[in-house]
Design goal:
Two copies of one chain form a homodimer.
Chain A lengths: L3 H20 L4 H12 L5 H13 L7 H21 L4 E2 L2 E2 L1 H4 L2 H19 L7 H26 L6 H26 L4 H28 L2 H4 L5 H4 L5 H9 L2 H11 L6 H14 L2 H22 L4 H14 L5
Helix pairs in contact in A: 1-2, 1-3, 2-6, 3-4, 3-8, 3-16, 4-6, 4-7, 4-8, 7-8, 8-9, 9-15, 12-15, 13-14, 15-16
């Protein structure tokens, strides 16, 4: 079985080959931002998951490598465009593409990345590639829907927990789930087990996004790679804020809402004030419980899969690592 | 044989069905701009060409209809994003999507349209659909390259005629050519003849784009649908400006360059002054000659195709109409 480290090396090697090919392509202003964004690093989570799911059903993962590259490029495409829409200036401790180049560059190179991801996907030689192209296309649309809900929520104060979970399912979980499922399909796994792989991915993805929300507020700047408290400053309707608004007393709610109105404020003061209310309401505990529940669901689905235990081991370890669990 | 009018009706009916389906989909803010952009009308040139090429080789064009919808949606996706990048406020006498909704909407709904076009394409039931998905993906990347060259040219005063033709080949001609070729492939046409169909499309597309340049400066507002003189005001490196800079005397060149520097000017005065130099240099004639030469090439390729004359007739008529030739 391939370990996370082995797969990561495989993927990064392949990305080096592909980006140096892109580097020579013209027009340079189109392909440089693509290279910049892919060389920025990142955890390469989706391609690793894809290959790992593939490896659950086959020892020869070589044929799935182009699909792994495809999902990583697709994921970076979404980051380019989301960062414009969210006015994000920093990503992985680097300037975002629209800051480093220009907004037009981020739009157009993002578009090119969307099509590049199809180009790589189409390189897979599998009798069932067609199913994967279908899955990939539907997933891409769902990711757009998720981003739209995320933006819609900015103008709303009444987002429910259910709506929020549906949003992160679309925005984050489906791509993780589809990467896993694509790996399974490309290895020739049957429909039923491929669906289980997908469901595992959805629950893992939900837990992972909730964890990301948690880290944005309660994490550490240098390990997280983004500015801590960014969600608070932007009044982002995260699980934390939604639960806080739901559980707040009249006075706490008034305070929270007061901080969400002004456009000019001292950022540190706002973060401290909102954090104070989060702490009073034990929001961190609530979020951790929610993360645990999705993570348990994911683990149960993986455990129940009719696959040799040792073949599940890498996925088990990686999902533990993704959620910061060391066992 | 299906006439342009018949095909147009077929496509518009299908688009009505598809857009009303989209209208019901959530989130509304994602799909409304898609509907808005598709309902704005337009000549539906690419889908008509696709079905016409299909009809050259088969009487049953039904199976190619989803591909026709796909290329129209793809084309509109490029318009949404190009209009942001070009700061265009009006399209087909309507506000552009980023003006009517927001820039974020135009980015994200544009993205969704790119994936929707794949979704429609994948509905075609043809043994050779795979070749079409490949073609479509490569074409999409070329279109991005063309748009990048177009933007690159904004900062340059030394764009050559050759560079310009390559830019419009990528930005405009390849999509027209690929639409035609896709129609041929889906009908089961062989490789050689499909390549001829593509080459016909490239030459037709080049003539068509040069014609568009010409109309932007020498056309009439209400029939053209965009503001006349927009290219002049934006210092766009069109065939007209490139030939004018190439052929200008020292004094004419100085005048042209003087008008390209200031950010604030009286628009009518600028249009008049630049037009005056274009007229002195007979730029309109030069452009018309160039259009004629590509159009003749296209016609020769079509004439040489080993297909019954009556099956070529609709394409012949439509290409004449596209270039404003009434014979």
């Amino acid at each position: 079985m391939f370990s996370t480290e082995k797969l990561l090396k495989l993927i990064n090697n392949e990305l080096v080959v592909q980006t140096s090919e892109l580097a020579g392509q013209k027009p340079g202003r189109l392909y440089e931002p693509v290279k910049y964004s892919l060389e920025m690093g990142g955890k390469r989570l989706r391609p690793v998951l894809l290959l790992m799911a593939n490896n659950m059903f086959t020892d020869d993962i070589k044929d799935a490598l182009p699909a792994a590259v495809a999902v990583e490029i697709f994921h970076n495409f979404t980051l380019l465009h989301d960062d414009i829409m969210d006015n994000a200036e920093v990503r992985r401790n680097n300037p975002t593409v629209h800051m480093q180049f220009s907004e037009n560059n981020a739009i157009l190179s993002g578009d090119a990345m969307a099509f590049l991801s199809y180009r790589y996907l189409l390189k897979c030689s599998s009798a069932r590639l067609f199913d994967v192209v279908h899955l990939f296309t539907n997933t891409a649309l769902e990711v757009c829907e998720g981003q739209q809900y995320d933006m819609d929520f900015e103008d709303r104060q009444d987002v429910s927990e259910k709506e929020y979970i549906e949003m992160i399912r679309l925005k984050t979980a489906v791509l993780i789930a589809s990467s896993l499922k694509a790996g399974a399909i490309l290895a020739g796994a049957g429909n039923e087990i491929s669906s289980s792989v997908y469901d595992f991915g959805i629950n893992l993805g939900l837990a992972f996004q909730l964890q990301d929300d948690l880290l944005d507020t309660f994490g550490k700047q240098n390990t997280f790679g983004k500015k801590i408290g960014g969600d608070i400053l932007a009044n982002k309707k995260t699980y934390l804020l939604i639960k806080a608004l739901e559980n707040a007393s009249g006075e706490q709610r008034k305070k929270l809402e007061k901080w969400m109105v002004p456009k000019a404020f001292d950022p540190n003061e706002k973060i401290e004030a909102v954090l104070d209310i989060f702490n009073q309401l034990k929001i961190k505990d609530l979020a951790e419980q929610k993360i645990d529940s999705y993570f348990s669901l994911a683990s149960e689905i993986l455990d129940a899969m009719p696959v040799e235990d040792k073949r599940k081991q890498p996925l088990k370890e990686l999902s533990n690592k993704m959620l910061g669990r060391n066992h």
